[in-house]
Amino acid sequence: YRERIRSNPNWHGYARRDTVLVDVGAPVMNGIVVGRVLLWFSFSFADKTFECALVNWLVPVGDGPDPDTGMWVVERERQRGVPALAIIPVDSIARAAHLIGVYGTAALPEDFHFSDSLDAFDTYFLNPYPDHHMHEFLA
Length: 139
Hints:
mainly beta, single chain, eight-stranded antiparallel sheet
């Protein structure tokens, strides 16, 4: 099984910053946290190359999945009002994640573009159903 995770400032004319599940040993969500990949980079130190990602964390809202949907709800972690960022090793990424904006009762504007989806909402559902692998991973 292979996935392609992108972080590109100009992917077919629009920014694309995919989300991932990162194994951090957290006490909820089976030890994982969601991160949005802002940048891929590597550096060398002491004759060793370190492959890394700069991520914006999205943390669980509550201690369990939403009772109506069975999906975890996540929101951007903020520190003093600023999105929390971290540099992580690429090998801590377990797999790609699929988020769905929590829409509320308001309708989206007709000119809403899909590339704005991960910036437009305050909270997101972590979708366990995009494929069999994700469903098994989150079970």
